[in-house]
Each structure stands twice: as C-alpha cells, then as structure tokens.
Amino acid sequence: MPRTLEGQITMEKTPSYFVTKEAPRRIYNMSRETKLIVVVRNPVTRAISDYTQTLSKNPTIPSFQALAFKNLSTGLIDTTWSAVRIGIYVKHLDHWLRYFPLSKFLFVSGERLVSDPAGEMGRVQDFLGLKRVVTDKHFYFNETKGFPCLKKPEGSSRPRCLGKSKGRPHPKIDPQVVQRLQEFYRPFNLKFYQMTGQDFGWD
C-alpha cells in the first residue's frame, strides 16, 4: 500500500476483517486512529444472499435449509455455517470493542444504501471529516438490478453499476425457515441495536 500523504485518506475494504479474530488487534497495532466503517444488513437476507452467491459457483451444494439447520424438526440453527455465523454482528463487534472505542465506528445500513444512497454516503463523508461532495445527483435507481447506480453529475461518462454478481434473484426459501431464522437473530439484533445506538429495523 502506498504511503498516505498529508491531506489524504487511505481506505482498505475487506469484508472478512469484521469477522476475523486477528484483525482488530492487527489493525490496532498498525494505527489506533483507524476509522472503521461497517456495512450491515438484515442477517437473514445476508445469509440467503451469501448462499445465493455460493450456489452460483457450485450448483450442487445442499439446500439452504439443510445448511442452516443442525436439526430441522427441532429448529436448531447451525451457527458453524459461515452464512449464519457472520450475521451474529454483536459477537463480532464485541471483539472489536476490546481494541477500539465505539466512536471509531460508523455502522452503515445496507438497506438504506439501496433506498437512500446519498443519505448514507452523507453520513460516511461526515464521519471521515470530508466535505459532502457525493450527493443525490450522483445516483439513479436501476430498475433491472434493483440497486442504485453511480453517475457523474456532469454526465461526462457512463454510469457505474454494481457487477453481475450483485442483484441476483434469491432462491425461494420456505417462509417457516425464514421465520425461524428471524427468531434466532432477534435477540442478537436487539443487543446490536443497543450496542451501536442504532435501530436498523430488522425486527
């Protein structure tokens, strides 16, 4: 990574850092001044999305419910499956808070990034101490993908949309499976809302 010069901000985006046990200590040892931006979405939707991505690469994997449950009849969730485990945000955050105070974090709503990208980007710019340059004129909603796309306000270049791997239709999951997962995540979500001081409205 090149050196960060005066007046510059260096950014690094690796989603797995949030769930990697060694990451908080390593980042703390590198720089205690690091600001951390965590994008979260409804953990049930996140798990289904994770499964959809894996399914696109390996169509022979077991069904979503076969992977999500240790025992379907008792409703016991398999927390060793990464698609489920990642969504227990409060456990991961707890580990990070041993090294960084809450003031070093910005929690961005994945749902609001879709419904109000400019609003969420405004919060990001404020958090980083930047002038608000990215505004609603930089976005338009792409009906086909179901996501906002970026455009240059001067209209000087083609819009930039998320890649082909984003916005894939999710497989149909039994509503009872979804409901059981929602029940499983609810206490973790509520604790996460308390810890962050933000209600993400997943419940």
Automatic annotation (TrEMBL):
Record keywords, A-Z: Disulfide bond, Glycoprotein, Transferase
Top EC class, one word: transferase
Basic residues: compositionally biased ranges: 161-170
Disulfide bonds: C149-C161
GO terms of molecular function: [heparan sulfate]-glucosamine 3-sulfotransferase activity
Binding site for 3'-phosphoadenylyl sulfate: R41, S49, K166, G167, R168, P169, H170
Entry-linked InterPro entries: NST/OST, P-loop_NTPase, Sulfotransferase_dom
Superkingdom: Eukaryota
Chain residue ranges for the region called Disordered: 153-172
EC number: 2.8.2.-
Domain Sulfotransferase residue range list: 30-186
PANTHER family: HEPARAN SULFATE GLUCOSAMINE 3-O-SULFOTRANSFERASE 6, HEPARAN SULFATE SULFOTRANSFERASE
Similarity remark: Belongs to the sulfotransferase 1 family.
Official protein name in the record: Sulfotransferase
Originating organism: Python bivittatus
Gene that this polypeptide is encoded by: HS3ST6
